[in-house]
């Protein structure tokens, strides 16, 4: 009995801290506190509603390529079928409306977001269209990522008698050459091969 009361008190303390964070707009911190409260005493009045509202609000802030991720709103996965997502929707609905605890202030936004999620995920046609749009956005993002990683190669003008392999061969890396080495290279590059200038035979 004493242990149960201690767990209830611990849950009540964390729930109050979660409520303060919720009112301040710190939804992530509020979710952490509400999770701890649920661990100690999940039957605490008002805790189910608070967790459901935070799930919707936090999920709404998670964008997918700049758009609302409706799967995150309901805590669902894209691989789930419509009946499974409908079960998640009904559970959130019951937690948000049937909890015996005190009502939350400022839940209009969460209720509006929650209601909009039905037309995107909870029917076959809406989910199919939404998945197609997500797939197109994902492909667009992948193309943009590949184009940002592409580094164009500048080819120099081909010289006479240059093969195709030589034209596309990248230049060697630059390095520092000492004075003596530079002189030896310069002399070797200007050396003229010996030519026999003897008298031409008659």
UniProtKB/TrEMBL annotation:
Gene3D superfamilies in the record: DnaJ domain (1.10.287.110)
Spans annotated as Disordered: 160-202
SUPFAM superfamilies according to UniProt: Chaperone J-domain
InterPro entries reported for this sequence: J_dom_sf
PANTHER family per the UniProt record, alphabetical: BNAC03G44070D PROTEIN, MOLECULAR CHAPERONE HSP40_DNAJ FAMILY PROTEIN
Protein name as annotated: J domain-containing protein
Organism annotation: Brassica carinata
Lineage start: Eukaryota, Viridiplantae, Streptophyta, Embryophyta, Tracheophyta
């Amino acid at each position: 009995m004493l242990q149960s009361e201690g767990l209830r008190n611990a849950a009540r303390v964390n729930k109050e801290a979660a409520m303060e964070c919720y009112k301040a707009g710190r939804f992530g911190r509020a979710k952490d506190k509400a999770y701890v409260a649920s661990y100690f005493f999940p039957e605490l009045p008002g805790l189910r509603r608070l967790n459901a509202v935070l799930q919707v609000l936090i999920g709404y802030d998670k964008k997918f390529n700049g758009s609302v991720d409706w799967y995150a709103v309901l805590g669902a996965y894209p691989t789930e079928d419509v009946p499974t997502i409908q079960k998640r929707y009904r559970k959130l609905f019951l937690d948000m409306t049937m909890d015996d605890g005190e009502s939350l202030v400022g839940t209009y936004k969460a209720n509006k977001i929650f209601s909009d999620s039905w037309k995107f995920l909870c029917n076959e046609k809406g989910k199919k269209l939404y998945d197609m749009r997500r797939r197109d956005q994902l492909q667009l993002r992948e193309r943009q990522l590949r184009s940002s990683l592409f580094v164009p190669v500048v080819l120099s003008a081909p010289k006479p008698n240059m093969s195709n392999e030589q034209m596309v061969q990248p230049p060697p890396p630059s390095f520092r050459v000492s004075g003596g080495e530079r002189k030896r290279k310069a002399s070797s590059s200007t050396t003229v091969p010996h030519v026999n200038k003897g008298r031409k035979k008659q």
